[in-house]
Design brief:
Jelly Rolls, 211 residues, globular, 5-stranded antiparallel β-sheet
């Protein structure tokens, strides 16, 4: 591990908060501008190699609906990466995202079972095969197309995964729980989806009215 002085640079400026004087730090971000990218695979490769070391979370980048709270780590035009946490002993019901093409990357998969079209993305017996202290399936990604239903079952330890996304059909990236077809995660999610449908229907009716 590098000494603290090698990993953090101090701004030399202090700010009074109450009676305490706080010294702000600057964390190295190692961020590279994203080149022109056309495919989801290219974006995944760029993000894993050059993505920001300090997450660039937009103002609408947090979601707390259901059993999978998430945060946007990076967003650029129609491409986006979200980190989701899955609560222990929880389920995310079967659904699909009609305007999102994604690759779901396991980062804490030791007790998390991801299904696409009813099939496990990782064989149950293989999930517990360990290498260097983590599941050997760590870092593996499974492609989920817009038309594919999928769901998640989580065991007692919980789990986490990256959702690397390409938003399609001109849909503005927000969170995948907004672009949802299937069983809602809970009552609050059901209410949000119903309200969103009303807003979209009103907007469509307004656009069809003659001028």
């Amino acid at each position: 591990m590098l000494p603290l002085s090698k990993t953090l640079s101090f701004s030399g400026e202090a700010e009074m908060v109450g009676k305490a004087r706080l010294e702000w730090t600057k964390v190295p971000r190692n961020f590279h501008d994203m080149p022109d990218i056309d495919t989801l695979g290219e974006y995944l490769e760029w993000f894993l190699e050059h993505g920001p070391s300090c997450p660039m979370t937009p103002a609408d980048g947090l979601t707390f609906i259901g059993n999978g709270p998430g945060i946007v780590l990076h967003r650029d035009c129609q491409f986006q990466t979200q980190l989701f946490f899955a609560f222990p002993n929880s389920k995310i019901p079967e659904h699909r995202h009609p305007n999102v093409d994604s690759i779901e990357v396991n980062i804490a998969p030791c007790d998390m079972f991801f299904y696409v079209e009813g099939l496990p993305s990782i064989p149950h017996e293989a999930l517990y095969e360990m290498r260097h202290g983590v599941s050997r399936w760590w870092g593996r990604g499974v492609r989920v197309r817009p038309n594919q239903f999928h769901h998640l079952e989580v065991g007692r330890t919980g789990g986490a995964f990256l959702s690397v996304q390409h938003w399609l059909n001109g849909k503005r990236p927000t969170s995948v729980d907004d672009d949802w077809e299937g069983q809602p995660m809970n009552f609050a999610h059901k209410e949000v989806l119903a309200l969103r449908k009303i807003v979209e229907d009103c907007a469509q009716e307004a656009s069809l009215e003659p001028i």
